[in-house]
Amino acid sequence: MKNGTTPKWLEQYEPGVAAHLEYPKLTLGQVLHETSRKYPDHTAFIYLDQKWTYREFNALVSKMANVLIELGLNPGDTAGIYLPNSPQFLIAYYGILRSGGIAVPINPMLSGEDLAFIIKDAQLKVIVAPVEAVQLMEQAKTPKLKIISTALTGQLDPASNPAAPGALSLEELLTNAADTDPQVPIDHTAIANLQYTGGTTGRSKGAVLTHFNLLANAIQFREWFKNVYTDGDGRFLGVIPFFHIYGLTTTINSPILTGSSIILHSRFDINEIMQSINKYKPNLFMGVPAMYAAIAMRDNQGYDLSSIRACVSGSSPLPPAVQKRFEEVTGGKLVEGYGLSECSPVVTVTPIYGTIKPGSIGVPISDTQVKIVDPQTGEEITTSGEIGELLVKGPQVMQGYWNNPEETALVLTEDGWLHTGDLVYMDDDGYIYIADRLKDMIIMGGEKIYPRELEDFFYTHPAVKEVAVTGIPHPLRGEVPKAFVVLKEGAAVTEKELRQYCLDHLSKFKVPKIQIIDALPRNAVGKVLRRLLREEGL
């Protein structure tokens, strides 16, 4: 928005949701102390039917901090977490922060060069991993890296995880550690987290996020739910991966800020999730479209899902049919949001009880400035409906990329605006719509083609379950669009018939090549791996 004008999206805020917030000068470890003081006997998390209170959790975090200090982790050193959702992840993460270290969550499905790169690039001193992955850690480790192994059994009993060759037992270390806060002086502006981007379009980069960045985004996110739940009453279904910043902020930091319970699941198993909702009555659930679709399209077999009050869908577009059916099944609200690792991650969310516009990613949350600029000229676009690159500014925006000033300079301006690389447009009410990724835009003989536009069109065909469109090189036109289509079960449409459907409804130059495949390649949080599709297209 132009300086001096009131952002039009503020009119969409629900009653009581503030446009501007206060952010205490606290570290995340101090926030946990405060929560455990207010809610000592509230359940902090549940895993495999075992429960831990905030008093117990806080003591375990102090134990972990003391363990790391004893192992030589100094303030500003980095420590990796190579774990699925589990009590050990929570204890390790907050223990690293309380010790003054920098946490580096790592996708536990990474291996080989991908894993070795992060270990080396982040300069890890310690890594916490499942006992089954110790050999993998040994292969990828650097000479001074210490490996702490853990058994993900739901128990923190040393008997469940004796020390493995080449590693220390987390359970043994915690048992023998003091549970008093080591009182390491940590500034609220210190680095808390290196969040490595997915690396699907090149080598991954570590987004530098401070305690202030992460706490600010947790406070912003909590404010959005002001009319949904009260502090101490939240019960979050914790199945979105915690190694991803989406899960880290929405389903760890925000619940801990409010004294809420986290119902942990190390994976999305539809039967386990249905049983968990029925038993533990979560009222908040942050996930991805595939999770909501699985619940919406499944016979609930008598499970009571009515505890669900509000959910946010992220990482990929939410089909309106899934949104509608999920709300019918649970009685709760399901809205779409948008974020990125560089923004801790939340930038926009649809108002929970406000106007829902299918296809929109909502409006900017509190204290979040956005503007849309022409990718070629950098001039701000103020016309509704005109596509440009989204820029973001706010307390949640990263400090830069770890040891990568060149890449940082490409995305962060001197006055704090972050180039997201996403092509968007805004309507007259301030709602934002993703048109495409700037790097995914296809330029065919000078014509701009947006894959998102073509994907939305394919979903109008009754036989199409999923689709992803990407550009593939062409000797004369530079590149041409190609659609990879997954059909609904039992559908018998052919590629030729789909092409004719396109010819009947689209401008001819937009009609893509079409290939029917069994499934789209995705990462752990549901994003389509377009790089793999481009390679397949070649």
Strand order of the largest sheet: 2-1-11-10-12-13-14-15-16-21-20-18-17
The name of the CATH superfamily of the largest domain reads ANL, N-terminal domain
Note poorly predicted spans. none
Average pLDDT number? 93
CATH class of the largest domain: Alpha Beta
Radius of gyration: 23 Å
Q: Would you tell me the structural class of the helices and strands?
A: alpha/beta
Silhouette:
globular
Relative helix content: 25-40%
Instruction: Count the beta strands.
Output: 26
Total tally of structural domains: 2
Counting DSSP H or I runs of 4 or more residues, the number of helices is 15
Distance between the termini: 41 Å
Sheet with the most strands, sense and barrel status: 13 strands, mixed
Report the CATH topology name of the largest domain.
Rossmann fold
The CATH architecture of the largest domain comes to 3-Layer(aba) Sandwich
Strand percent estimate:
15-25%
Domain AMP-dependent synthetase/ligase: 33-402
Family: Belongs to the ATP-dependent AMP-binding enzyme family.
InterPro entries: AMP-bd_C, AMP-bd_C_sf, AMP-binding_CS, AMP-dep_synth/lig_dom, ANL_N_sf, ATP-dep_AMP-bd_enzyme
GO molecular function, one term: acid-thiol ligase activity
